[in-house]
Design goal:
The complex is a heterodimer of chains A (about 110) and B (about 325). Chain A is an alpha+beta fold and about 110 residues long. Chain A is about 60% helix and about 15% strand. Chain A contains four helices and three strands. Chain A is globular. Chain A starts with 9 loop residues before the first helix and ends with a helix. Chain B has about 325 residues and is an alpha+beta fold. Chain B has helices at about 5-15, 20-40, 45-60, 60-70, 80-105, 135-145, 160-170, 200-210, 230-235, and strands spanning about 125-130, 155-160, 190-195, 240, 245-250, 260-265, 270-275, 280-285, 295-300, 305-310. The model of chain B is unreliable at about 75-125, about 175-185 and about 215-235 (pLDDT under 50). The chains are: A alpha+beta (about 110), B alpha+beta (about 325).
Chain lengths: ~110, ~325
């Protein structure tokens, strides 16, 4: 599945990845790839602006950390981010159920 | 010393990003490049191959710059960015104004054939390349790569459809929510030509630069979709109807692009604008509560006539 099919859902996916624990951008991309068993081929250039948007909206916060001799910007999920994820998960479930209903009857 | 692909990529980012926030973004992307390169080498790839793959996955630097700038221009990070936003708005306004002028006088055609450099001084007019609504990021990236190889192109800037929509809403807050082709204006590249090439010359190379999914339209009518209320003041919109369960053919000249065709289904008016592109039907469907659908199809035929049908399905 390429990144174009994921337009509009990237923030949700990143929130879900952050719910597993803090991580820097590349680690989050790898986490999503692993969780989707390799099916998600994210446009990696989209991920960093999306993380910045999540932070600007208060759904994530970030800080510099040093590891392996390198400085990394590590993202953490905030309480509003966790709430947002719960809300979006519910909305996604509703959408999937609705689409399945339509597909099942067509 | 030869510049590596990663260094070149970071340099392009550095040159394109606004000063505010640039250091952080560069550090993040640098870390991404290093981590991905290390991973690639662990998987047995050569340095060059790993570098090529990671840069390919990140996408062209120009697009990444635009995505970051997109957020910065919303003023979420303070005054410097509000200044950027103001400049961006003015640029969009200028392009739209120029293009609307072209649309109204009927100059929206690629009629020029000149491809060679000219001694004429370049006007400040910008050329904008619009993408199809369904164009993919990889198609846009492929286009950017090709564009960068042309000497006629001095520089280009990627503007996302979402950015265009936000800016248009600021400029025209009373515009209807629906714009042509869907809820979103189109991704575009704003191209500045090299000074020694004329406007027709640059149009010609863009016209010839065929990449799937890309619409090379400098002044395509869809361009003015977001500012429909503005266009409506310039062009009177004709309206015809078709009865449910029937078809009509309108002779050439009766209806033109963006005129409206409607179909009345028990008081509900389906409406469909005449498409800009000939041969490609536009349609709108309404599904009743009994799951029966009413579909209005409108096709702008190659001979200039318009075929409309409204029926149940």
């Amino acid at each position: 599945m390429n990144g174009d099919a994921l337009r509009g859902h990237l923030e949700l996916l990143l929130l879900a990845a952050l719910a597993e624990g803090e991580g820097h951008g590349y680690a989050l991309i790898e986490r999503l790839r692993a969780r989707s068993e390799g099916a998600l081929a994210l446009g990696e250039g989209s991920v960093y602006p999306a993380l910045h948007r999540l932070e600007a909206a208060g759904f994530a916060r970030s800080s510099w950390e040093r590891g392996d001799g390198r400085r990394k910007r590590v993202y953490h999920l905030t309480k509003p981010g966790r709430d947002k994820l719960g809300h979006e998960r519910h909305a996604w479930g509703e959408l999937v159920r609705t689409v399945e209903l339509v597909l099942a009857t067509s | 010393v030869t510049e590596s692909e990663s260094e070149r990529y970071l340099r392009e980012l550095r040159q394109g990003l606004p000063v505010f926030g640039r250091r952080r973004i560069l550090a993040e992307i640098r870390h991404h490049l290093e981590a991905a390169l290390a991973d690639g080498k662990d998987r047995g790839l050569s340095d060059q191959e790993a570098e090529r793959l990671v840069i390919e996955r990140l996408g062209p630097a120009a697009i990444l710059v635009e995505r970051f700038t997109d957020d910065l221009t919303r003023g979420v990070r303070g005054l410097p960015n509000r200044l950027v936003a103001t400049m961006a708005k003015k640029r969009i306004l200028a392009v739209l104004t120029v293009c609307l002028g072209f649309a109204v006088v009927g100059a929206a055609v690629f009629s020029a054939t000149e491809t060679s450099p000219s001694a004429k001084p370049a006007s400040p007019l910008a050329v904008t390349v619009y993408f199809k609504h369904q164009a993919t990021r990889s198609q846009e990236g492929a286009f950017a790569k090709k564009l960068a190889t042309y000497p006629q192109v001095k520089k280009f800037k990627f503007v996302t459809g979402a950015t265009a929509l936000r800016q248009m809403k600021k400029v025209h807050p009373t515009s209807p929510g629906l714009v042509l082709g869907g809820h979103n204006p189109f991704d575009s590249f704003q191209v500045t030509r090299a000074v020694e090439y004329t406007q027709p010359a640059i149009q010609k190379i863009l016209h010839d630069l065929t990449v799937p999914g890309v619409r090379f339209v400098m002044v395509h009518p869809e361009l003015v979709g977001p500012s429909w209320d503005l266009l409506r003041k310039q062009l009177a919109r004709h309206h015809e109807s078709v009865v449910l369960g029937s078809s009509r053919v309108f002779a050439p000249g009766v209806l033109r692009a963006m005129d409206l065709v409607t179909c009345n289904d028990h008081g509900l008016h389906l409406q469909m604008p005449v498409p800009f592109q000939s041969g490609q039907p536009g349609r709108v469907t309404f599904t009743r509560t009994n799951m029966v659908s009413v579909t209005l199809r409108v096709t702008y035929e190659h001979d200039g006539s318009v075929r409309a049908s409204c029926g149940l399905s």
